[in-house]
Amino acid sequence: MNLVTLDDIAAAAERVAGHAVRTPLVAAPWADRPLWIKPESLQPVGSFKIRGAFNAVAGIDPQRRARGVVAYSSGNHAQAVAYAARAFGVPAWIVVPEDTPRVKVEATRAHGAEVVLVKTGERESAAYAIVEREDATLVPPFDDRAVIAGQGTIGLEIVADLPDVDLVLAPVSGGGLISGIAAAIKALRPQAQVWAVEPELAGDTAASLAKGELVSWSVADRNRTIADGLRSQPSELTFGHQRALVDGIVTVSEDEIRSAVATLAHRAHLVAEPSGAVTTAAVLHHGDKLPPGRTVAVLSGGNVDPDALVALLQS
Amino acid sequence: MNLVTLDDIAAAAERVAGHAVRTPLVAAPWADRPLWIKPESLQPVGSFKIRGAFNAVAGIDPQRRARGVVAYSSGNHAQAVAYAARAFGVPAWIVVPEDTPRVKVEATRAHGAEVVLVKTGERESAAYAIVEREDATLVPPFDDRAVIAGQGTIGLEIVADLPDVDLVLAPVSGGGLISGIAAAIKALRPQAQVWAVEPELAGDTAASLAKGELVSWSVADRNRTIADGLRSQPSELTFGHQRALVDGIVTVSEDEIRSAVATLAHRAHLVAEPSGAVTTAAVLHHGDKLPPGRTVAVLSGGNVDPDALVALLQS
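Above: the input entities. Below: the C-alpha cells describing the complete assembly.
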C-alpha cells in the first residue's frame, strides 16, 4: 500500500499554516510519567479536523473547487469542511442526519455552509447526489490521502517541540488522525512509538489489529460510547497505515473517559470532548500497558455541549 | 521614570524559552469583533506568572541564587517562584497566610518549595526575615524590572503572531503584566492600543489613572471581587509604566466575569480563573467603550477550584 509520505505532510503543513493553530505542548506534571498534552481543541473549529479538511480543499484544482465541496458528517468534520470552504470562498454542502443536535447544525451553518438534513442511513447517498448535481467535490472524513497528510502535521509539530519524544498517543476511529501522525513520527523519529487509544465500547480497531484484518462492529454497538467522535471504523487505507506504522493500542472504559475530561479541565485548564480525552485516560489508567518515556497525548477536540460538560466535571 | 525596554524583554524571552509555553492565539469567532485569546492558563503553573518569576530568578547572580529565593503570595506567583527555583535547583521559601486554601499550599509544595504559614498581615515581614536569615533573594510579584520584562514576553509573541494587532487587553492588579505587555507592544507597534481591565469591585487602578496619581483602596474593599488574582494595587514602578504606556481602562462587574468564564469554557474550550476572564468580559460587555479592530484578550490564568469552576459554568 502507498502510504502517505513525509513530503505529503510537509506540503500540508505549508498549506494549513495561518489557518490551523500551531498548538503548543502543554506540560502535565500531574501524571506519573513525563507527559505533554497537544490541545487540538484550540483549533478554530474546536478540533484537529481543520488540518485535514483544509489540506484537502486546498489541494482541489481551483476551477473544480469553485463549484463547491460536499461532506457528510454530524460532527467535527462538518465544521472543518465548512470553515475551509469559506476560507477559499467556495460553496459547501454538509449532509447531516435529521436527528443531529441543533447546536451542531447551527455551528456548521455559522461557517456559511448549506446544511442538508436527511434520514439517518441516507447520508452517503445524499452526499453523492449533490456531488453529481453540482459537479462538486466530496471531502471524505478520513479515507483520503490529503486528509491524512493534513492530520499528520500534528506529528511534525510534536517532533519539532519535543525532539526526544518516546511515545505519541492518538485517538482512533476512522483512523485518519493516527495514520497521519504515525507517518510523520516514524519518518522523523523512528525510535518513538505511536499508540492508538479507543473506547472499549467502540473497540473495532483493537479487534481488527488483533486479528490482522478489518473487523466490522455494528453501528448500534459503536454508538454505545459517549465518545461520539470515535464511532467510525477504519478504511482499508487507514487500516493499512495502522498495520504498518502503529505500535499498539489500548482501550479505555466510559468511566475512565469521564474522569479524564474532569482531570484535563481541573489540572490542565483544557476543555476536552470525551473523544479528545481518551489518550489522557490511557495514560492515567493504563500506563502499565504503555511503553515508558516522554509521552505526548493528543487531545483531539473540545466540542462538548455545555450541560454535558458540567455533568462530566462532576464525575 | 526608567521604563522597561524592548531589549530587557527580548533578553527575558531568551531566558524563558523552553520553560514558559509559547502560547498560541486562539481565534474567538463568537465575538462581535475580530478577537483572539492568548491562553496563559496553559503555562506549567497555570498562569503567566512563570514568565516574570523565571526571568527574575534567572537574573540573580548564580552564587547568590544558590542560597535560595523567597516570595510572599498565596496565589499564582507562589507557584511560579517555586517552579523557577526548582528549575535552577535552588531552595525556595514561600510565605503564605495561614488561611490559604490547602489546595494552593499543596500545589506550591508540589513544586518543591518550603511553605511558611503566617498570620494574615505578617507576610511581608516574615518574608524579609527569611531573606535576612538565609541571605536569600526576594522575588517580588510585580514591583521589579525583571518580573515586568518577563511578563512583557507575552507582548512579543502577540506581535509576532498578529503583526497588525490593533488592541491588546490585559488584566491589571499589581500591574506587572500590563506594564510588560505595554512596553513590548508600544515598542514594536506604536499604533496599537493597550487597555487594562479591572473588576469594578477592585477598581483602584481605574481610580488612580483617572486622578493621575496612585489611589489606595482598602484590602477589605479589594477583596470583594471573585477575581482573587486582581486584589493587589500598583506600585510606583508599575503605575509609572501605565501612565506612560496604557491607553485606557475598563472595569467589569462580577456577573460579567462569571459569564465570561462560562463563555471561554463553552466556546473557546479554555478553563479560565475569574481573574483571567476579565478581558473577555470587557470585549463581550463593554465593546462600545473599546477602540475597534483586531483585538487580543490576554487570559492570564486558569487556576480555579474544581467546585468553583462547576458553579461558574452554570452561571
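Note for the figure: The CA atoms of residues 56 and 154 of chain A lie 16 Å apart.
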